[in-house]
């Protein structure tokens, strides 16, 4: 099948690779423009662009490059922008979305599933419509959320979605007979800085879920401390405090406490929490966090 592929992050790469591996002709890959990253502000290509170039595919950065392109269908995986209705009228598109639609339509379905404590999530291969994630579903696949981090769950869903996409494209029955979405609609709002800010009124479970997103942080003595790995403490601590107790760094939450395992102080490298405590030269055995 002659296809155009729209995607940007690493999570979209397995689908692109699977399409080529399955023998589909990817006529064009459209991805978001190169961005400046890092201290040197060097222009960096998206993971999809790098993968496409490695595969010898033509790459573009604008939807206008689809004008006049003769393709059978488009495939969209985490492209990062809405597709105009006029383009969808001309090119039918499939979308690999990382949730069990209609739950978690929108920008951050994996993270919102974790924060909500969902027991399971999955991928939905749907027909794209101008409205946000409303299209009929051709195929869905489910996974258990468990204790997976957002990055682990996203990687698993990316592979699962790639396999589901190939299955849909290879089956006239699945391709021609999608089902209308059924169930309660929820929206996965975009993540903000405050999404990752740990709060003293969080329960142990809420805090652990936030840490599983990656980039969680608290403020200790006015400096940011990224919290990478925690586990439930066997002891309690007052909410809003961090204590060094028998070699463990214990953070007090609203209904209990967690042990900080791995952290990253502001301006430093990742390290164990006891190493951070020792290096911070904290004067007391208990400090406040916010």
Provide the descriptors you would attach to this structure in a database record.
8 helices; 18 strands; 290 residues; Rossmann fold; 2 domains; seven-stranded antiparallel β-sheet; seven-stranded mixed β-sheet; Methionyl-tRNA Fmet Formyltransferase, Chain A, domain 2
Structure, described:
- This protein has 290 residues and is α/β, with parallel strands linked by helices.
- The protein has 2 domains: 2-188, Formyl transferase, N-terminal domain (Rossmann fold); 193-288, Roll (Methionyl-tRNA Fmet Formyltransferase, Chain A, domain 2).
- 25% of the residues lie in helices and 31% in strands.
- It has 8 helices and 18 strands.
- It has helices spanning 13-21, 47-54, 85-90, 109-115, 150-169, 172-176, 204-212, 273-280; strands at residues 2-7, 25-30, 35-37, 42-44, 59-60, 73-77, 93-97, 105-106, 120-127, 137-144, 187-188, 217-220, 223-232, 241-245, 248-253, 256-265, 271-272, 286-288.
- It has a 7-stranded mixed beta sheet. Strands 12, 13, 14, 15, 16, 17 and 18 form a 7-stranded antiparallel beta sheet that branches.
- Strand 16 (256-265) and strand 17 (271-272) form a beta hairpin.
- Helix 1 runs parallel beside helix 5.
- It is elongated and about 70 Å long.
- The termini are far apart.
- The mean pLDDT is 95.
